[in-house]
Structure to design on (551 residues):
């Protein structure tokens, strides 16, 4: 075997994706185990990465207190929607089979450092955390149960916006969730909204921005319109930190940026101030 | 057979409606106001930073009712188009609408809103001044407002920017208007990866008045004159006036608390999950 033939042999290495995590914000590389061990937070830039709804619940609810409600509510294919790549129903069914979740928000009752609460946590991996009719219904019912049981409401948002596959009725969920949150406040209950990376479009323009206090995590993306849409409209380059948690705090739309490890204690402290 | 075929050929596609809904010759908010009101006094400003020309707001008299009118303003001339961002509202516009709606509530003035916008303005200052918060607050605010609200979708009902003044007790929609969670072009760009597939996206999204009536997103379709409102603005405005006044007559009879309860039940039923 000649040297040139030997050179052609490729060493067998596993695909890079399996081993390495790349921070989506600062692009620094690290071993996946490091990323996971650091609770999906970048050790370089402190970007707080995405968590699944179940991971988040485990970090916020006291152990063994979370009791899921409204799991019988799921997506609804009112439009029999299909696009170039197939139909909505098959796509969403595949997502359900893969994730074991049947909507983009998980709702339930729990205790947070001993404080009774109604908790809603969105999962970005479910159709981009989009707001469908099932999502809106779960959140509206969560508000109503919170009123009935005198529980404060805490929602962790993570969403690209309304779910266009459900057409106008997904848009109407913005009205439905906002109306339900209005009732919760009227009933004298507090609502803490935690906008996690990313919270944009129809979700930021409804329940996510309606918190009595709105908090977020370092470097989260929060906004209404997409960066590219804005740049194409105004024909200007936007600052790098545009629509970041820090940018929103500076402009007065976020009460506080809270580190992930402090979030649970922060929520409990606020609920305590209000007597819950 | 022959009639069925002719019918099929002449059926308007969703994209035909999109084109008609965007036609510059369609009546604009000021045309509807002039036809609806015997007198109208426009008021300005959000009392915070700005007066947004994309949102028209003012008090007027219509069929004996003293009302507040709110409406997206695309503008009838090029200068007006520019001044009002083609009807794309900034947060300031939604805050102006809420400020005056609160005043209307205090004096039991019913509210009539005219919806015609491509969407909320996607701009740098719009984001910095809280476009998302302004829309969210509007939805919460109008849902609980203790005065009757009649909504008329007259042209383009563009997503959250439209919905922000479209939460009400009776939702009317003109025959050729469209109302959608996303523009057909935007949807085609994302789901078809090709903006040119907008006609397919428009069909799939079900954005025409008859489709939305079936889905329960609106309450009534207002017929347009033959060929569309742009062919006969006067007749179109008269038809809208008739439906608006009929709706107001019914709604003013309800006590405020019952009105708000009914509105909540209506909003709550979107998506129809029952109990």
């Amino acid at each position: 075997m000649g040297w040139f033939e030997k050179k052609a042999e490729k060493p067998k290495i596993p695909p890079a994706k399996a081993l390495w995590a790349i921070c989506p914000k600062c692009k620094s590389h690290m071993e996946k185990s490091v990323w996971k061990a650091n609770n999906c937070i970048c050790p370089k830039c402190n970007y707080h990465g995405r968590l699944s709804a179940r991971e988040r619940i485990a970090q916020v609810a006291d152990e063994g207190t979370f009791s899921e409600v409204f799991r019988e509510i799921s997506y609804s294919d009112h439009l029999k929607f299909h696009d170039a790549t197939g139909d909505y129903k098959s796509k969403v069914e595949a997502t359900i089979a893969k994730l074991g979740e049947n909507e983009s928000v998980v709702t339930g009752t729990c205790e947070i450092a001993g404080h009774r609460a109604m908790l809603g946590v969105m999962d970005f991996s479910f159709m981009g955390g989009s707001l469908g009719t099932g999502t809106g219904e779960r959140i509206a019912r969560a508000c109503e149960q919170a009123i009935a049981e005198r529980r404060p409401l805490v929602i962790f948002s993570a969403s690209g916006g309304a779910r266009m596959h459900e057409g106008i009725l997904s848009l109407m969920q913005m009205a439905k969730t906002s109306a339900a949150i209005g009732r919760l406040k009227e009933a004298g209950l507090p609502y803490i909204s935690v906008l996690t990376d990313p919270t944009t479009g129809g979700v930021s323009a409804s329940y996510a921005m309606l918190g009595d206090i709105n908090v977020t995590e370092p470097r989260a993306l929060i906004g209404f319109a997409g960066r590219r849409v804005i740049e194409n409209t105004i024909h200007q380059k936007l600052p790098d930190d545009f629509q970041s948690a820090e940018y929103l705090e500076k402009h007065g739309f976020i009460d506080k940026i809270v580190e992930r490890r402090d979030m649970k204690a922060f929520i409990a402290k606020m609920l305590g101030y209000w007597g819950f | 057979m022959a009639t069925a075929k002719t019918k099929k050929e002449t059926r308007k596609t969703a994209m035909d409606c999109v084109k008609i809904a965007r036609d510059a010759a369609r009546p604009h908010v000021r045309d509807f106001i002039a036809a609806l009101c015997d007198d109208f006094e426009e008021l300005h400003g959000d009392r915070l930073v700005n007066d947004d020309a994309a949102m028209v707001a003012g008090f007027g008299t219509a069929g004996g009712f003293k009302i507040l009118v709110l409406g997206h303003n695309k503008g009838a001339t090029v200068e007006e188009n520019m001044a009002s961002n083609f009807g794309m509202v900034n947060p300031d516009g939604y805050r102006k609408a809420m400020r005056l709606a609160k005043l209307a509530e205090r004096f039991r003035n019913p509210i009539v809103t005219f919806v015609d916008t491509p969407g909320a303005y996607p701009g740098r200052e719009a984001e910095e001044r809280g476009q998302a918060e302004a829309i969210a607050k509007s939805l919460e605010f109008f849902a609980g407002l203790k005065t009757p609200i009649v909504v008329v979708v007259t042209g383009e009902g563009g997503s959250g920017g439209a919905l922000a003044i479209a939460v009400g007790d009776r939702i009317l929609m003109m025959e050729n208007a469209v109302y959608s969670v996303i523009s057909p072009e935007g949807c085609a760009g994302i789901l078809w990866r090709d903006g040119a597939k907008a006609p397919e996206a428009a069909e799939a999204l079900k954005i025409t008045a008859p489709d939305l009536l079936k889905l329960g997103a609106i309450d009534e379709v207002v017929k347009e004159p033959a060929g569309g409102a742009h062919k006969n603005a006067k007749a179109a405005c008269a038809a809208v006036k008739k439906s608006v006044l009929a709706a107001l007559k019914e709604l003013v009879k309800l006590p405020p608390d019952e009105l708000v309860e009914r509105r909540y039940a209506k909003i709550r039923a979107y998506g129809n999950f029952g109990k």
